[in-house]
Design brief:
By secondary structure, the protein is an alpha/beta fold. It has a single domain (about 1-145), classed as Rossmann fold (3-Layer(aba) Sandwich), CATH 3.40.50.720. About 40% of the residues lie in helices and about 10% in strands. It is built from six helices and six strands, in the order E-E-H-E-E-H-E-H-H-E-H-H. A two-stranded parallel sheet has the order 1-5. The chain has a two-stranded parallel ribbon with strand order 2-4. Helix 3 (about 85-95) packs across helix 6. The protein starts with a strand and ends with a helix.
């Protein structure tokens, strides 16, 4: 079995500081939320880290996964497009205190490079994957928790 995830987004149990979330693919939505404007487009395919872990484990079931198949791990429902700037909408809805404190700027942009990915076989085998909004909520919640801890340590 071969797994082809997009940018892996979600909580990272190893990071200790909010800035460390910017050193992985989590950095894409975090940097956009912090106001970074990217010039070059990036592939608009994401995978929630929980789905990566779950499918690695479920893929060990030889009755469920027969043969050597390629599974595209494209998060979200079939046909759902990732719009990187949606992080700004999620921040406004879920984390308005970050705007009030001036931690987040809502000015970031990243043009998407859409590609046609057929993840139907993956969905048929493993079920729906978590979407971009859920991935954003998880990584931003961790960023906010770390940022609050850093502020209280000062």
């Amino acid at each position: 079995m071969n797994l082809l995830p997009g940018y892996i987004i979600g909580r990272n149990a190893l990071v200790k500081k909010s800035s460390e979330l910017q050193a992985s693919s989590n950095g894409i939505p975090v940097n956009i939320a912090l106001g970074q404007v990217y010039d070059a487009a990036r592939p608009a395919v994401i995978t929630h880290i929980d789905d990566v872990a779950r499918i690695h484990v479920e893929g060990l079931d030889e009755e469920r996964v027969k043969g050597n198949h390629i599974h595209i791990l494209e998060g979200g429902k079939d046909g759902e497009k990732v719009v990187f700037e949606d992080v700004n909408r999620v921040v406004r809805r879920e984390f308005p205190e970050t705007l009030e404190r001036g931690w987040i700027k809502e000015e970031g942009k990243l043009p998407p490079a859409y590609s046609v990915c057929d993840a139907s076989e993956t969905r048929k085998t493993f079920g729906e994957l978590k979407g971009y909004d859920e991935s954003l909520k998880d990584v931003l919640a961790q960023w906010v928790e770390l940022k609050k801890r850093e502020q209280s340590d000062k």
